Amino acid sequence: MTDPREPQDPVTRHPRPDFPEQEQQHPGWTGPMDPPPDHGEDSYRGTGLLRDRVAVVTGGDSGIGRAVCLAYAREGADIVFTHLPEEEEEARETARLVEEAGRKVISTPADNRDEEQCRALIHRVVEEFGRIDILVNNAAYQMAQPDGIEAITTEQFDRVMKTNLYGMFWLTRAALPHIPRGGSVINTTSVQAYQPSPPLLDYAMTKAAIVNFTHGLAQMVAERGIRVNAVAPGPVWTPLIPATMPETAEFGKQSPLGRPAQPAEMAPAYVFLAAPGASYITGEVVNATGGTPLP
């Protein structure tokens, strides 16, 4: 096991393309991925930064969401995370990692496209814990369409918008009355917000909107002592990639570091933004793009 406290070359720390071509049905699964994603299972070490906080993470079954749940738990937080019903097996692994860290965990199926399910999630958390200290709006949907805008059906467009934007809005609106001073909302945007790839036109639109939502809401709730920030990942090796992208062999090769990020490399940004040390940081976007310059 590599000691995470030792300096490591970011170019060679994790696998580099070319990867085997691989394709999965949506929403994708961690197990078949080659190379396997790293969520920090063997590397993330907590220091109690989030001791006894209550964190809600949408899309926590795999990828960035699983890495955030793991890191938050090892920092001392209790976790509530959502997943789609078909992701139950993936969710069990995330729950196991949280419990292994000695924290409480609630894993619940929920679809961001349904307002009532969003309200019910927040109600359940408040009933169980009495408050929400950290809300991570991470769940998202994408489906690449290399054949142009004509290939984006209204059904796909509606799913992308509702999953990525409506759900974030509904959850945040419902959660805010239960977030005390010192709490945080952290949204997952993307490099796509600034440098949209044409096959991900509709997805990129939502990620740009999330940046704007973050800036606006941060100003709206600042006087309530609640901070709102976002993380903008570049290419990250998650099940969403083989499930939604037509080619995977060179995924992430375009980044200056020459490889995609592993989910474990995203989690520290979410920890930092939720921790007390970031008390003067709100309305900001942390870019985690492997060197791709963003505004």
Automatic annotation (TrEMBL):
One GO molecular-function entry: oxidoreductase activity, acting on CH-OH group of donors
Gene3D superfamilies: NAD(P)-binding Rossmann-like Domain
Keyword rRNA-binding in record: no
Chain segments carrying region Disordered: 1-46
Biased composition (Basic and acidic residues): 1-19, 36-46
Keywords from the UniProt entry: Oxidoreductase
Family stated for the protein in its record: Belongs to the short-chain dehydrogenases/reductases (SDR) family.
Protein name in UniProt: NAD(P)-dependent oxidoreductase
Species for this entry: Streptomyces lavendofoliae
Upper taxonomic lineage: Bacteria, Bacillati, Actinomycetota, Actinomycetes, Kitasatosporales
